[in-house]
Amino acid sequence: MKPVLILCPGLMCDDAVWAPQLPALSATHDCIVMDYGLRNTLADMARQVLETAPPGVFALAGHSMGGRVALEVLRLAPQRVSHLALLDTGTHPLAEGEPGIKEKAGRLALVALAKEQGMRVMGRQWLPNMVHPDVHGTPLFESILDMLERSNPERFAAQIHALLARPDAAVVLPTISGPTLVLTGEQDLWSPPDQHASIARAIRGAELALVNHSGHMSTVEQPEAVTAAMVRWLQR
User: Fold this and answer.
1) Packing angle between helix 42-52 and helix 153-164, nearest 10 degrees?
2) CB 3.0-4.6 Å disulfide test: which of 53, 112, 123, 156 passes with 148?
3) Domain end among 108, 129, 161
4) Domain count along the chain
5) CB 58 within 8 A of CB 6
6) DSSP 8-state class, residue 54
């Protein structure tokens, strides 16, 4: 039997965000892409991962919000995870004071827009800062909007609730001992390279990979580079 690899997508993403990687990763691993349903805390999403995984250990990769879910899995059951990949993600909780108030207001405004005018309209406002400028106006940009539109405002609201209540995950990093990949796009404005460098420094033996010409959606913006990094990671 092949070892298991669980892939945790980010905010409002589905299996399309991992589609470019699946052919190569499936050659060596049984891949499971998570669907969080209406779960509205990162801890509940992490428990779902553990309930979905077959008995024994598994490799775990998370993109964006999915990276935070992966870290909550490590908090709950570190002995279950053989390999960890954190892509375009973060560990900090909601900031105190004005920065946190501003983030909360911005996220809730997007939820309101999705409820009032639909997911695609919301996506056209949200997505430009999530991808490299060269992606704007391309078929890839529209395909990401298609992915958002496959979801609904209720799921969006649940996941925003989870992110606004996110715990500090930095305390988990020094406890990680397995092969770890920390990857981000060099032009990721939301989860920038220096943030990932700090994450990698906090994990023993972690590999830091920066993907050129990519924003936050690295798995689909630069799929070949991300796939190559993940294949190397799973071979460690």
Assistant:
1) 110
2) 123
3) 161
4) 2
5) yes
6) P
Q: How far apart are CA 173 and CA 157, in angstroms?
A: 28
**Both tokens of residue 106?**
């911005």
Residue 204 gets which letter from DSSP? T
Give 72-124 pLDDT, tens digit per residue. Answer: 999 999 999 999 999 999 999 999 999 999 999 999 999 999 999 999 999 99
Taking residue 124's Cβ as centre, other Cβ atoms within 10 Å add up to 14
In the chain the first and final C-alpha atoms are separated, in Å, by 19
Co-location of 89 and 106 in the same domain: no
In whole angstroms, give the CA distance from residue 70 to residue 52.
13
In which domain, by residue range, is 16 found? 4-93+168-235
- CB 103, CB 94: distance < 8 Å: yes
What is the per-residue pLDDT across 21-55, written as a single tens digit (0 to 9) for each?
999 999 999 999 999 999 999 999 999 999 999 99
